[in-house]
Specification:
There is one protein chain. By secondary structure, this protein is an all-alpha fold. The protein has one domain. Helix 1 packs antiparallel against helix 5. It is elongated and about 55 Å long.
């Protein structure tokens, strides 16, 4: 397994596990975030599981365009999280905002690692 496959696999695992937690423990997560409505956690969890499955597909295929799209989606997640942290539009608990910040940092690091791995893969192919 090359570096790109490893970084994508970490992203898929993190996204999949996070999605499962949001779905299976939605009541508990809603309490952590200070929300009575739990459906948003089901929705985000389902989207994350779908995202993880698309990443797994690219671990196998390694199509550069699709990997770039995965990286873009990670960056959009970080930007969206930054917006939520700065504007605080949802009146979440402090712990909820801390969780959003931690996840955003992890996703940012994955985007950086995936970008570096994709670049090194391109450089190896051009040799």
């Amino acid at each position: 397994m090359n570096r790109l496959q490893k970084t994508l696999s970490v992203n898929a695992a993190f996204s999949g596990v996070t999605g499962m937690v949001l779905i299976l423990l939605n009541t508990w997560v809603a309490e952590l975030f200070g929300r009575s409505e739990q459906s948003i956690f089901w929705i985000i969890g389902t989207m994350l599981i779908f995202f993880a499955s698309t990443i797994i597909f690219e671990v196998i295929r390694q199509r550069q365009l699709w990997i770039k799209l995965i990286i873009i989606q990670d960056i959009l997640w970080v930007v969206g999280s930054g917006f939520i942290l700065l504007k605080r539009p949802f009146n979440l608990t402090d712990l909820g905002y801390i969780i959003i910040a931690i996840v955003a940092i992890i996703v940012l690091l994955m985007a950086i690692n995936q970008t570096l791995a994709l670049t090194s893969t391109k450089n190896e192919e051009n040799r």
